[in-house]
Description:
This protein has helices at residues 3-18, 29-46, 60-63, 75-81, and strands spanning 23-25, 89-91. It is mainly α. It has a single domain (3-107), classed as Alpha-Beta Complex (Ferredoxin Thioredoxin Reductase). A two-stranded antiparallel ribbon has the order 1-2. Iron/sulfur cluster binds next to loops.
Amino acid sequence: xxxxxxxxxxxxxxxxxxxxxxxxxxxxxxxxxxxxxxxxxxxxxxxxxxxxxxxxxxxxxxxxxxxxxxxxxxxxxxxxxxxxxxxxxxxxxxxxxxxxxxxxxxxx
Length: 108
Ligand code: SF4
């Protein structure tokens, strides 16, 4: 499967996974496109659509916690920010993602 097709399949799959958790893709379509492209590349290189904005720890158990969408592993923190780290997903009622605060997990 080529990169454009894989991007679309991830878009379809992720939309169905994050929706029941109260999230949606950010309304910033350019960011969505860039991040999905980066995830497809990570998947091609490392075997899974890892988070484009996090370093992989290098062991499987921890790596899986930054496999997109990683919301279940970081739910409390993301719910406080109303977005995920990369900003690929935001709470369903967010229309201005640039206005959302970002802070490290230990400040949540
Ligand atoms: S921070 Fe966002 S983009 Fe990164 S893996 Fe988690 S859900 Fe995906």
